[in-house]
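Provenance and format

Records in this collection were gathered into a single text stream. Each protein contributes a sequence line and a token line. The two records reproduced below are adjacent in the stream.
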Amino acid sequence: MTFRAGLIGYGLGGKTFHAPLLEAAGIDLVAIASSRESDIKADFPEATPHANADALLTDNSLDLVIVCTPSQTHSDVTIKALDAGHNVVVDKPFAATAGDADRMIAAAANSGKLLSCFQNRRWDSDFLTIKDLLARDTLGQVHEYQANFEFYKPDPGDVWQNRDLPAVGIEYDLGTHMIDQTVQLFGVPEWVEGDLRKMRPVSQVHDLMTVRFGYGGMRATMTASYLSTNHTLRSTIHGATGSFRKYHMDCQEAQLKGGMKATDPAFGVEDPSKYGTLTQFTDGALQDEALPLKNGEHHTYYRLVREAIQAGTPPPVTAEEARTVIGLIETAQEASKRGTRIHL
């Protein structure tokens, strides 16, 4: 029995991060709505091209609709898809505001359909490895967690991602991933601090971000930047009995951009030169160990979505979890404006 999906939007996100993962998850991409008809025919000749979302949403044979349109349109397109009777995955950011997220959740409840957010970086190799270290209490009581997600893009370019629009800016782009990962590791924080800045000369959006969460005596700090010339450090976590440090981005994005299929045995497998470093105090001395990473598996997100629809199992990312992330982004924005810590 086939599982049929339709994709709305075939820009960078749809073409690079969504469409290539579906085959490995046992999902057939049978319809794509985009103005890029020539790209669709070249990449997925068996898929039906549609000129717009409305045309695709009339296809009642679809088991899943994936919304990968510009961020500021996510809530409206998602609600339209839910109202048309479709299960929906929406790309991050889930919505522009917590209020928009609430409208989406209400639409899903009214339709009785699944609604989930594509938080694929829950299946990054370094994140999966950190989750495993915490589950096994390898580091002891954690007191410091730092996550970095940085690029060097000094010229914003005249694209919607760099315009003063709802749900746009580094907090909604890279920050969405980092906040979701932190909440998955440690839960909702007790307080939030934020520092959001525009540093590129012609930038219309925040392009540097520092967000800090407090959990009792533990601190989690997330930094994101489009102006980092050296952007190799990914994460550092310190506990009472050990530390873990990881350099270099998870390999899956580069593999997908390079044309590797998610069904390739090498997909998500990190090169040993990019392993993390585990440091522990053993036999009276500090010992460093190159720690092999869990294999990255972004396609697992879609497999779990398919199973949730077919078997009624929990979705891999709930709409309520996605709403929490948007609420924390709004809190960080307010903290940045006030220059103060906000207690939740």
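Adjacent record:
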Amino acid sequence: MNPKVDVYLEKCEKWHKELELLRNIVLDCGLIEDFKWMHPCYTYGKKNIVLLQDFKNYCAVLFPKGALLKDTEGILIQMTDNVQAARQIRFFDIKEIEGQKNVIKAYVFEALGIENAGLEVKKKKTSEYEKPEELKQMFKDLPELKLAFERLTPGRQRGYLLHFSQPKQSKTRTSRINNNIQRILRGKGLNDCICGLSNHLPKCDGSHKQLN
């Protein structure tokens, strides 16, 4: 057992009993306990097999490659449409966990087999992501924006497409696009700073400002 997980469980008052039980079930499958991304993570051969999560209304077992599981019980949940690989089993009380111990273990062992076989989730290419109509129109109005967008790395393009597509209202989507035009023209990703660091804003020394 990893002492960092002990600290995590002590702070998690609402789901303490449920997560403690899930912890024991997963450890009984022969996995190694680690602590990654601020959550208990269980590995085999340094590869992530499952994570434990706590939320306001439920706790969960997360399978990073859950999309490859057969899900014979029909209990896996895709968190959002944009999540391609990971899947959750959600629990709302300890009785649910107690009643599904064997099922949880079966899913864990299947996930372990998938990892040992070296299987990977086939993810959508950037070109397969749908562009919101507002962005398509903006590309027509500003050809230089379209060119700058196409020069971005695939990861940066996906980040923008997901960000622009999330709002339900057209005016909100348009606002998000307008707010990021200069960033795209400068070749920056959604979370990039002037210093060039991507997704590492806490590492910046404060000598520059984030792009507006």
